[in-house]
Amino acid sequence: MEITYSIDFQYKRRGDEMPSPAGSVIRTSGEETPVMFIPSVGDYVEIGGNPEEDESLTSFRGIVISRFFRYDRQSEQEVFCHVNILVEESFQNFSNLVLD
Fold first, then answer.
1. Which of 65, 70, 96, 97 has the fewest Cβ atoms within 10 Å of its own Cβ atom?
2. DSSP code string of 47-65
3. pTM for the full model?
4. How far apart are CA 59 and CA 34, in angstroms?
5. C-alpha to C-alpha distance for 52 and 99, rounded to whole angstroms
6. Residues whose CB falls within 8 Å of the CB of residue 51, separated by 6 or more in sequence, listed in order
């Protein structure tokens, strides 16, 4: 069976009820990447992009507050899994998380 994944990272400012409408989507298939590292709730993430070159490549960083998995069976052999990861604004000093 082949599983195709779509991972959508959405950003939510602290205090807002809903995330920003624009997200950052990463697509991959199960055959290309048999093991995927998906951040868990409580993990800090940084999504880099270049919005000056492409508006869809927004940049943000924060803490993962939820993960939602939606599985759609396309056929007996194919499943599409959409993962929505909600990243909330964090006041964490990210330079304290990684040594350069």
1. 96
2. E---TTT-TT---EEEEEE
3. 0.77
4. 27
5. 28
6. 57, 58, 59
β-pair type (78-89, 60-73): antiparallel
Q: Measure the CA–CA gap between 1 and 46, rounded to whole angstroms.
A: 32
Tell me, what amino acid is at 16? D
- State the DSSP code for 90: -
CA dihedral 86, 90, 96, 100 (to 10 degrees): 50
Termini Cα distance of the chain: 41
| Unique residue bearing structure tokens 């939820």 | 66
CB contact at 8 A, 23 and 6: no
- Give the pLDDT confidence score for residue 72 in this predicted structure: 94
Q: What is the mean pLDDT of each run of 10 residues along the chain (100 residues)?
A: 82 88 60 73 85 68 93 92 90 78
Biggest CA pair distance of the chain: 47
